[in-house]
Design a protein that fits this description.
single chain; 211 residues; alpha/beta; five-stranded mixed beta sheet; two-stranded antiparallel sheet
């Protein structure tokens, strides 16, 4: 069994587009099995919410700034997305040829988002404004989710069509190198996405727009 990991964190300005992206990479090599089995990547998504209690429109921004748990280098952020790719493959060696006989890839996506507390006093105007901002945040984060989807698809496609080797050790080294390259390419896609959208500003991610 061999494990590899790559971490990436990127942040946006606190008031305009709160964004934190972290990428975690793990590789597990399983050396057993006889049948050739490949499948589409599995996707697991989860949400963690932090509670805010705004009494007025003006409170939305201050409550998020006060309650957000997302902090880095002295800055606060309103939302975050992280994705992790896990993959496993098994190889076989027959007639002096080593090849990948089965694989599976899993994309794990985690979001941290703000949420108005259920105990907060009901205010239609506040709820409506917050909802608009929340969905703008989520729309931008969905772009980073898509980077994860594309990375997972590319990893599974690479394993499905991976070259055979005379040495299984050479196969493992080559697989590690090529899959790490795929992950790094999709990290760059995340960076390009933030540049193209100005960290969500062009998608309407500005809390002032909804107040």
């Amino acid at each position: 069994m061999q494990d590899n990991s790559i971490f990436q964190s990127r942040y946006s300005s606190a008031l305009s587009i709160p964004y934190l992206s972290m990428i975690f990479l793990s590789l597990f090599l399983l050396l057993l099995h006889s049948s050739s089995v490949f499948a589409k990547p599995t996707v697991e998504s989860s949400y963690q919410f932090y509670q805010i209690s705004p009494k007025s429109l003006a409170d939305i921004s201050s409550e998020i700034e006060k309650k957000t748990p997302i902090k880095h280098a002295g800055n606060k952020y309103h939302a975050s997305t992280s994705w992790q790719i896990k993959w496993a493959y098994q190889w076989q060696k027959k007639s002096g040829i080593c090849y990948i006989s089965s694989s599976n890839t899993t994309l794990i996506v985690s979001y941290i988002m703000p949420e108005i507390s259920v105990n907060n006093e009901k205010n239609i105007q506040v709820s409506s404004s917050f909802s608009g901002y929340y969905h703008a945040l989520l729309k931008h984060e969905a772009g980073h989710y898509q980077s994860g989807i594309k990375a997972a698809d590319a990893v599974e496609d690479k394993l499905l069509n991976f070259s055979s080797y005379s040495s299984c050790e050479e196969l493992e080294l080559a697989a590690n190198k090529e899959i790490t390259t795929i992950i790094n390419e999709h990290k760059k896609l995340d960076t390009a996405y933030d540049i193209a959208t100005d960290h969500g500003r062009t998608q309407g991610v500005s809390i002032r727009k909804y107040l």
